[in-house]
Amino acid sequence: AQKARRDSTPEAPTWFLKMDRNHDGDVSVREFLGPAEIFTRLDTDADGLLTALEAGTLNRKQAPARGLQP
Length: 70
What we know:
Helix content: 25-40%
Largest sheet: 2 strands, antiparallel
Shape: globular
Strand content: 5-15%
Strand order of the largest sheet: 1-2
Structural class: mainly alpha
Radius of gyration: 11 Å
Distance between the termini: 24 Å
């Protein structure tokens, strides 16, 4: 499963790549800079981690942190 997450990282929005502080290909709730309700909405498999594919569902108007573009 971890390999699949890493394979999806190149498709990640810029904000996702910046939030992934440990560069593991996922954004945890601790790394996420936006509101908890957006994290929960994006975390479609409810595993506590955002993948690049999950992050890609966020549109520009909903960018979770000021100045970070999807």
